[in-house]
Design a protein that fits this description.
It is built from eight helices and twelve strands. The chain is α/β, with parallel strands linked by helices. The strands form two sheets. A six-stranded mixed beta sheet has the order 3-2-1-11-12-9. The chain starts with a strand and ends with a helix.
Length: 244
């Protein structure tokens, strides 16, 4: 079975549309969304509708949780708080109800799906540096064999060995080794921050045990202009051009 896994759409309809078109060309059996469908971007209801239609499974992101009233976000910086309030004031009730019902984490056999750290899904801890992966190594037995998550908007992979060793995997496509557990940060559809402004998603082949990162160009100008035209921080649009 082949899975397409995406995360951090952040109400960027142009990026989501192109990613879904690329996914369709690959014909995976399932699509999984790792949260943050909303926040930062301007196409709130359109992105919620598409993800609800196309993803078999969606887990709750921190921006989704904040908009749905499921977490406190007073500690967020001003522009992010305003974006959450702006989104909450505009989202359709049916999409708000959907966000309120999403799970924090989903496990099925060797696969784990969450937005932030798989061992602290409700606190949305980050895992984007090898030091953070090493902190999880003593609890490797609690992890799925392969754990997919988003949140950082970075494309990062860490392999936890049977002897407690931790290594970063830097290849855009790689196979799983027996006895290892993997932490896979799948990047962002709607707001990449790894220096590549193209939207990102992941393909996973369960039979070949192979993970592959895919990048997709999209109409950044239109997505950014929607942000500029809305009552949102200009930087949310400007950073789309840079991928940071």
């Amino acid at each position: 079975m082949r899975l397409a896994i995406l995360s951090d759409v952040h109400a960027n309809l142009e990026a989501l549309t192109e990613v879904l078109a690329a996914i369709d060309r690959e014909r995976p059996q399932r699509i999984v969304c790792l949260g943050d469908v909303v926040g930062y971007g301007a196409s709130v209801d359109e992105c919620c509708a598409l993800v609800r239609e196309r993803a078999e499974l969606t887990v709750l992101g921190n921006h989704d949780a904040a908009v749905a009233g499921r977490m406190e976000y007073g500690f967020y910086y001003d522009a992010a708080r305003h974006a959450i309030d702006w989104t909450a004031s505009r989202i359709a009730e049916e999409h708000l109800a959907w966000l309120r019902g999403l799970p924090y984490v989903h496990r099925e056999g060797p696969l784990g799906f969450s937005h932030g750290s798989p061992l602290a899904p409700e606190t949305y801890d980050y895992v984007f540096a090898i030091e953070q992966a090493r902190e999880l190594a003593p609890r490797a037995g609690e992890l799925a064999e392969i754990n997919f998550f988003g949140h950082s908007h970075l494309t990062k992979v860490f392999a936890l060995g049977p002897g407690g060793e931790v290594a970063e995997v830097v290849a855009p496509r790689f196979g799983l080794r027996q006895g290892y557990r993997y932490l896979v940060s799948v990047g962002s559809v709607g707001q990449p921050r790894d220096g590549d402004n193209r939207a990102c998603f992941v393909l996973y082949d369960t039979e070949r045990r192979e993970v592959e990162f895919r990048r997709v160009a999209y109409d950044i100008e239109t997505a950014a202009q929607k942000i500029f035209d809305a009552d949102l921080a200009l930087n949310f649009g400007k950073r789309l051009f840079l991928g940071v």
